[in-house]
Amino acid sequence: MSWVEIIGWSATAVGALLGFPQLFRLLRTRNVAGLSLLAWQAVLVLNVIWFTHGVRIGQGPQIVTNSVALASTLPLLVLLARATRRSLFAVVAPSLVAAAVIIAVDFTLGSLAFGLVATIPGLMSSSGQSVELVRARRVDGVAPVFLALAWVNQCLWLTWALLVHDPGTIVACSITLTITAFNLIWFILRRLGLRALFVRASDEPVLPCTEPALARS
């Protein structure tokens, strides 16, 4: 196996398992402080569209990766829906509609158009978490391992793209790598005492996802 294959499969494995540290932390602590619902809705879009794209072009790694990733994304959204006292349908439906639109692009306009449109939820998944890390009064619900793995995953994909000379992936990963690096650094600064920025007076503090809250949903 070549270095390109090793790095590519390593990136695939990290991407598939990326959400589990956050899921385990949420199951253990029931604390959603600092988590971005929008970011995880975007992750659901990504999992669905890339799974479907993998089926369309017959690529097993994409199918397996996103199947495993869905096993962490869906439970996370269930817990976030309960914590924010929203119906699961209201949380999941926008993601499924967006995924359906992007899948339609894939089947009608081809892979290039699909790849361009797919960057939108990709950026939303990272930048949505950035906004929450900056504005949330507390961030102790965020799993640092998740943020670190997100950065490592982009490093691996960028390295792979440089080795295979894939300009599209190089550009996309460079942008996402910058955002994930910001998220990790900003999280560390918040845990060291940096206060939230741009908090509106009307914003309510983020409450832990306690068992009573779960029971009421």
From TrEMBL:
Record field: transmembrane: 6-24, 31-51, 63-81, 88-105, 111-131, 143-163, 169-189
Keyword tags: Membrane, Transmembrane, Transmembrane helix
Origin superkingdom: Bacteria
Residues in the signal sequence: none
Name of the protein in question: PQ loop repeat protein
Organism the protein comes from: Micropruina glycogenica
